[in-house]
Amino acid sequence: MSIPATAIGAAIGVVIHSDLELSALEREGLPLDTREGLLRLGLTPAEIAQHVIPSRTWSHRQAQRKSGERSTFSAEESGRVLRMIKILLHATQLFGDQTLAIEWMRTPKTRFASQTPLAMVETEYGAGLVEEMIIGGEDGFCA
Questions:
Q1: How many C-beta atoms lie closer than 10 Å to residue 35's C-beta?
Q2: Among 17, 119, 29, which residue's Cα sits nearest to residue 70?
Q3: Per-residue confidence at 91, pLDDT binned at 50, 70, 90?
């Protein structure tokens, strides 16, 4: 099952009505506050730094916000945030529990050469493989 744009918007605290709107927001840059959505979905600040937005980049973006220079992530950074949120929501939907979903995301998988789904989601292709595994779980195959 696909995750609707409205659910992704709710997770990041932005009202979104369509995939097209979400795509435009990604291109323009998500507000820096959307990082809170990752925290609410169970990621730790260290996991966000490792798999989504490096600490140095996050500090740079905060400094830019304070100086009034910029208050959004870049399009590339926004894509990584949205990709992680989409996969986290999809895993939560599969397991029916956010804590179980996060535990699954943190557990290395043989299918991924002992990498965790969190690590796999760092790339678009890796995220696709994680999503395939989640869909397999929805279809009754072992996740």
A1: 22
A2: 29
A3: very high
